[in-house]
């Protein structure tokens, strides 16, 4: 790994602190973040191209916007699983899928993406939106290893994340200053997404650059190679 990719900021808050923070934030999350995250999130769902009858996992399902879209895409014969660290976020998701009359297609679990409670090769596709960059740097490979493990051969992973570039813009520098100074409030940071996915033995299919609040965002779809 080259020097620039070693300079990703660390995440200092604990998972217990993260769980408590998102439990408190869950009722307000859509007001604070849903509008700004909508375009990249919807792009990630669209590019993952989930089809009828597929079995799909969303890691860090949050308040359930993508879960609803995925559940509609898999049809009556498919299934969608959502996992999140926060019970509060899962409660919001459960209400959302209930209003959409999709409860029969969705299974929600509280858990940790670094230790997924699923068998090897369980899923056709996995989605993460604004989740991977929440993990501390040494744990990101473990999360991607779990994604690789639970995907079937030839299965696909879609990741939407704030992206680190070789040359940082002013907004990235300001955001990373806030991340270092107020780690409980700015608990994620840009990561070298494409390189990180390649290091985890995925094959990149498509990568799209977007922007949010002036921060670079990437939407990347990768494959778990066939043996």
Radius of gyration (CA) equals: 17 Å
Q: Tell me, what is the CATH class?
A: Alpha Beta
Describe the biggest sheet? 7 strands, mixed
Number of domains as seen in the coordinates: 1
Second-tier CATH architecture: 3-Layer(aba) Sandwich
- Count the E strands: 7
- Reading the helices and strands in chain order gives HHEHEHEEHEHHEE
Overview of the structural elements:
The longest helix is centred in the first third of the chain and has 20 residues, at 29-48. The protein has a 7-stranded mixed β-sheet. The protein starts with 14 loop residues before the first helix and ends with a strand. It is globular. 37% of the residues lie in helices and 24% in strands. With 227 residues, the chain is of the alpha/beta class.
Can you describe this structure in just a few lines?
The chain has helices spanning 15-25, 29-48, 65-74, 87-99, 140-150, 170-181, 193-199; strands at residues 55-59, 79-84, 106-110, 123-129, 151-162, 203-212, 215-223. By secondary structure, the chain is of the alpha/beta class.
Mind sketching the topology for me?
Layout lengths: L14 H11 L3 H20 L6 E5 L5 H10 L4 E6 L2 H13 L6 E5 L12 E7 L10 H11 E12 L7 H12 L11 H7 L3 E10 L2 E9 L4
Parallel strand pairs: 1-2, 1-4, 2-3, 4-5
Antiparallel strand pairs: 5-7, 6-7
